[in-house]
What does this fold into?
Amino acid sequence: MTISADTIAPRAIARDLTDTIGSTPLIALGNYAAARGLSARILGKAEFTNPVGSVKDRIAWGIIRDAEEQGLLQRGDLIVDITSGNTGIALAAIAASRGYRTKFYLGDNTSPDKRRILEALGAELVTIPNSFFLDPDALEKLFAQAEAENEGAFIANQLGNPANPRTHYETTGPEIWRDTDGEIDVLVAGVGTGGTVSGAGRFLKEKKPGLRVVIAEPGDASVPTEEDEYPDEIDGVHKVLDIEEERLPPNYDTSIADEVLQVEAADAYATARALLREDGLFVGPSAGATVWVATRLAERPELADATIVAILPDTGERYLSAGVFFPKA
Ligand SMILES: Cc1ncc(COP(=O)(O)O)c(C=O)c1O
It folds into this structure.
């Protein structure tokens, strides 16, 4: 094949960073699937190709755009949220390009690489000890604290802001539908805020009622407990089974999942490493988790010919110091 100026599809010049968010490619995990003897087609939705490196670019822009349209944000205003890193990074980058300031509350288990990126972006950081999140009311308390400490700030509230799942309903879901020509049988995602699975899942199920939505949730050894406050975790995703409804993020649609499968951090990390070494895809541990679950599904005889789309939420470069690709220092 010859590549020339004539064969390159034209692309409009982006007015700014936000014009380049979304329309991420689906990438076949060809070598990975072949090495495991899988005949099902596993496709990764490459959210790490977003301009700031994660799926959160979409919702950060969705939330900021919505606030701007409602007249809630003026240049110089402060944007505040509780984040495990990626939403903060995306909000801070978009804020930089639009003249806002940012401040984030994040756990002290946040990957050091994410902290450094947030610092480089100029975000103000408030560090919360991981043990605080053992309290079932932790998020509610932290939210109240953030509101009290930042009077007049715009609280992005990724956990409850409807612009989050709406963005996935309007973009992520339709992109997957378009790019598979409707040939998708299963969607696999994790739940942080629940925005991705609820928004994209709802769009795809409306198009194809028989489509299955499967959630990859962390196994018991991969969530903090009183005995082990700092286990290896799958950054950004939480348990949804056996959690009281009022403790789940408001943006998580509890009716969306057909099945929830557990994956431990060690398996998610190993899968992230396999994707890097076998298909050259540098993704984070939550992508390892969705692909590990997609693999278990692909092994089922009834899904041998299925097309399974796994969300690959972010870039592995955010976890170089987090014990995913190398032992922790
Ligand atoms: C790395 C990573 N993976 C997955 C997710 C889950 O996405 P969502 O918040 O849409 O449920 C998040 C979000 O917190 C994340 O940061």
Summary: The radius of gyration is 19 Å. Residues 163-179 form the longest helix (17 residues). DSSP finds nine helices and ten strands in the chain.
